[in-house]
Amino acid sequence: MQKKSARPYYHEFAWAYDLLQTENVLARVDVIVKILAQNGIAVGSRILDAGCGTGRYAAEFATRGFKTCGVDSSPELLAVAKGRDYGDGRVAEYLVADLLTVSFQKTFDCVLCRGVLNDFVADASRRSIFRQFANWLRPGGILLFDVREWKKSVARYSQNSLHHRTVDLPDGRLRFESETRLDHESGLMLIRERFAMDRGGDTSFTENEFVMRPWTGHEIAGYLNVHLLQELGTSPSYGESGQTWSDRLVITARKRC
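RE: above sequence
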C-alpha cells in the first residue's frame, strides 16, 4: 500500500524521529551550555527551545537545571517529548503552538532554534520569525540558531542528493530515504521523502514532498540588525570534533540592551 502524507516525519512517524536523528545531543548541549556561560547565561536561566521536536534538547537542559520551555507545532512530536523519563523530576514545559504567532508573559534568557528556520520559505515568515526572537528575549539575552546556507547546500547536494537510513524494529524494519533537488532560480530545496515499513512480510510506503529555503549570511545579518540582535559568532557545527555539517551555519547573537 502506498499513500502520501504531509511531513510524516513530524506526525505519523513522530515515534521514529529519535531513531532516525542520531546526533550526539549530550555533546552538543555541552557546547551550548559553555557558550551560554561565556555570555552570562547560567544554570537556572530561562531557555526557550523554539521548534523543540521530541524534546531531546529541552529535556537535557531541564535535567541540567535550566528552566526550559519547548514549543512545537506538532502534537505528535510533543507527545514523545512529554513521555520522556527525566529521572530526577526536573522537567521541561511543552506547548503546541505556531512559532510565528505564539507569545509569552515572560521573556527568556536564551532562545534556541535548531533545524527549523529552513522551513520558513516566504520572505514575510522569515522577517516574522526574527521579530519573534527579539520579542521572546530579554535585553542582553542570547539567541542561538542554525540554518542551511545556500552556497554550502549547493556544494553538498551537487555531490550527493540522496540520504538513506534503515532502523531495525522489534517487529520489523523501517527504511527511510530522501532525495534533494535544488532550484537555482528560486533558491529552494525540493525534497522527496519516503518511509517503507516492513512488518510480517507486508511492506507499506508513505511518501511526501516539500520545499525548504536555505539562507545567506547577508540575509541573516540584515534580519539581526533590524531587530537589534548583535551577531557574536558563527560556526559550521555545534563543536563536533573532526566533522562539520557541510551545509550549515550555527550562529550566536545577543539582544542589544
